[in-house]
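Subject: sequence -> structure tokens, single chain

Hey, anyone have a minute? Need the predicted structure for the following. Not urgent.
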Amino acid sequence: MRDQVAEYEASGGQRANTLRDTGLPVVIVTARGGRTGKIRKMALMRVEHNGEYALVASMGGAPKNPVWYYNLTADPHSVLLQDGPEPFAVDVRELAGAERALWWDRAVAAFPPYADYQQKTERTIPVLLATRRG
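Reply:
Had a minute. Here:
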């Protein structure tokens, strides 16, 4: 993932902007590590609607949430998201109820394997909403 993030950033989002060879777009999310304080960057599936983004903590249907989920929820106001040439500041919050269901449907439409991932795990896969700060 480190190489993909570096190539995405270096090219202003022109290269390394899809999940492997699927052609499905990704965004780059930058957060501070909850324990280390170090900057962490990850490529996540692009699930965008009206300028907001769903960040789906699927980890392929693993029994635990990914580490980045804890980093974002620990410091939700110091997150950057890059969808194109320049990163921008976002605030992140976890969704629940009908709002989560709406964004979950959008996420599955953007990346159908999310539905399979949910079936593989007993945990409810968290959906975070990233909203541009400004």
